[in-house]
Amino acid sequence: MTVDLQLSVNEQIYPLTVDTRETLLDTLRERLDLAGSKKGCDHGQCGSCTVLVDGRRVKSCLTLTVTVDDQPITTVEGLAGEDGLHPLQRAFIEHDAFQCGYCTPGQLCSAAGMLAEAARGWPSAVTPDVAADPVLGEEEIRERMSGNLCRCGAYPGIVAAIEEVAR
């Protein structure tokens, strides 16, 4: 079965007809040629496919395209603005927060979503006082980014980059 819908990706509208079983990851990569989001595990375990839907982090390999009809989607290709790289992208470069780079698009989108969650005051499992605004130190960042794996082990640079932007 197919459905007609409109995807709003990186502030562009894409009218599409998609199979109701098609994942957002496959739609982004195969139909829209947005290959930044990676297919790592295809089971929602690694986070390399992470994108933002209406500002919230989602694993696009587990998200059916039909469920995000007419919602704003941001991929790594849409993080940068007219005035250049997103602050997280600059910080990842400055802190050498990647090696092979395969997980980097998902790490960047997840970090952007995580910073927005913290700014809204959402606690994590390690937030000491859930009634207070979270302080984004190393432990807090590691917990909030735990759904994104890096096979190369670039975590020290990733955490340092996020910490810098959080300040």
UniProtKB/TrEMBL annotation:
Single Gene Ontology MF annotation: oxidoreductase activity, acting on the aldehyde or oxo group of donors
Any one Pfam family match given in the protein's UniProt record, by short name: Fer2_2
Superkingdom as given in the UniProt entry: Bacteria
Known pathway: Alkaloid degradation; nicotine degradation
Gene3D superfamilies, alphabetized: 3.10.20.30, [2Fe-2S]-binding domain
Domain 2Fe-2S ferredoxin-type positions: 3-79
Alphabetical list of InterPro entries matching this protein: 2Fe-2S-bd, 2Fe-2S-bd_dom_sf, 2Fe-2S_ferredoxin-like_sf, 2Fe-2S_ferredoxin-type, 2Fe2S_fd_BS, Aldehyde_Oxdr_Iron-Sulfur, Beta-grasp_dom_sf
Tagged with keyword Phosphoprotein: no
Claim: Oxidoreductase is one of the keywords in the record: yes
SUPFAM superfamilies: 2Fe-2S ferredoxin-like, CO dehydrogenase ISP C-domain like
Keywords: 2Fe-2S, Iron, Iron-sulfur, Metal-binding, Oxidoreductase
Protein name from the UniProt record: (2Fe-2S)-binding protein
